[in-house]
Amino acid sequence: MSSAFIALQHLVPQHALTRLAGRLAASKSPWLRDPMIRRFAAAYGVDMGEAARSFGEFASFNDFFTRELKPGARPLADADRYILSPADGAVSQLGPISDGRIIQAKGRDYSVEELLGGQTGDAHRFDGGQFITIYLSPRDYHRVHMPAAGVLQSSVYLPGKLFSVNPGTAAGVDRLFARNERLACLFDGPDGLFASVMVGAMIVAGIDTVWPHRFQDHETAPVREDFSASDHRFAAGDEMGRFYLGSTVVLLFEPGRVAWNDALQPGAALRMGQAIGVRLSGE
Is 227 helix (H, G, I), strand (E, B) or coil? Predict the structure, then answer.
């Protein structure tokens, strides 16, 4: 990734471009929608054989981008033994959380507290735990699922920048995932407290959740929600949200809860539902 591309991202009107892309992606006009879908699928090598619907059956480009898959297209590993990948994509980084900080790329890190937006003072609970960052490319399936069973406790939408989140930008922009727009969700379950953070990026038209809540207007102030009195309960592998155009998911676990698979290294391809770590405790 050239430094010129990173410099350009600092200069362009990120939010204006993203809003324009969002309007185009939401269009239901066949003359715009259908060529856009077909050209995107061809350019990025989207596997339509695993999609539940075919060309011509999508209401908008957004509908295509968040397409559901055929039943059985993503078999789940044994959730009694393993932590599951929440999405299709590739490992960006993974490892221990040390002194409250997460590795972003070689020579770059950021704080858990900043990533979570100071959410309910729980950032310290992840110190000494484990994180994994998963990058979703344009061709990937863009629904995000639960890595483990859990009950939603709280969420915070944090407005921010909209830098690209591809590996080149992650290596070149300080604190990228803690600066970009994001939705940080906390869950409690047999694997203790864990976080699933959906990070937005340039031309990501929005983030949607199944509770439901949709953040497609790029709010200017944080939106904090407390779900502790409700019962939003999920099994491992259940859908929790989706991206309207590509992005990144960051998972955080408390100490002593997960050991990542030895085969996982930065750049390793993932499919939603595959085993990415061994559960070290829980029911």
Answer: coil
